[in-house]
Amino acid sequence: MAAKLHELRPRPGDSEKITINLGYVDLGHIDLLVQDGFYANRTDFIRTAIRNQVERHAEAARQSVARKSLDLGLRHYSREDLEAARAAGQPLHIRVLGLASIAADVSPELARAAIGSLSVLGSLQASAAVKAALADRIR
Questions:
Q1: Where are the alpha helices (DSSP H) in 68-127?
Q2: CB-CB neighbours of 96 under 10 Å
Q3: Do 120 and 126 form a contact (C-beta atoms < 8 A)?
Q4: C-alpha span between 84 and 8 (Å, rounded)
Q5: Whole-angstrom Cα distance, residue 93 to residue 104?
Q6: Which of 19, 45, 57, 73 sits in a 20 to 30 Å window from 110, CA-based?
Q7: pLDDT digits (tens, 9 = 90+) for 8-65
Q8: Predicted pLDDT at 29
Q9: 46 φ, ψ to 5°?
Q10: pTM of the complete model
């Protein structure tokens, strides 16, 4: 019944786009550092800055992950996983930091029957119908 857990390493296509607004002076500083060869481009600078901040707070994050009982990395739930949870009468309480994915062949009815709660810090990949069926259970 337990889904497989995998560590994630960012690869092209394995990421999610975000949009940020920056002041002109901050953007100019980034462009200057790129121009002087410290970073390949703006994205390289921003990714590096984010990784540095995450590392700076790594111990606090580790404690929070443990306290909140989060699965770290990629967590995939197949139709078989959800059918087993439903058959056992044990709804899943999914808590993931990273990427949680629910198989494309999972029906909204099965998702509602098998998933008691869903909390994802990162990204949830599931069909629009499954997301809609779980809307009241997503935290």
A1: 79-88, 108-114
A2: 23
A3: no
A4: 26
A5: 19
A6: 73
A7: 455 545 788 899 999 999 999 999 999 999 999 999 999 999 999 999 999 999 999 9
A8: 98
A9: -65, -45
A10: 0.74
* DSSP structure class, residue 138: B
Task: Give the residue carrying structure tokens 């009815």.
Answer: 109
Distance of CA 82 to the CA centre of its chain: 20
> Is 2's pLDDT higher than 60?
no
Question: How many other C-beta atoms can be found within 10 angstroms of the C-beta atom of residue 113?
Answer: 17
5-6 and 115-125: which strand pairing? unpaired
Domain-by-domain residue ranges, the chain? 24-56, 69-137
CA distances from 81 to 31, 41, 54, 73, 111 (A): 48, 42, 32, 18, 10
Helices (H), the chain: 24-35, 42-56, 58-67, 79-88, 108-114, 128-133
Residues shown for the chain = 139
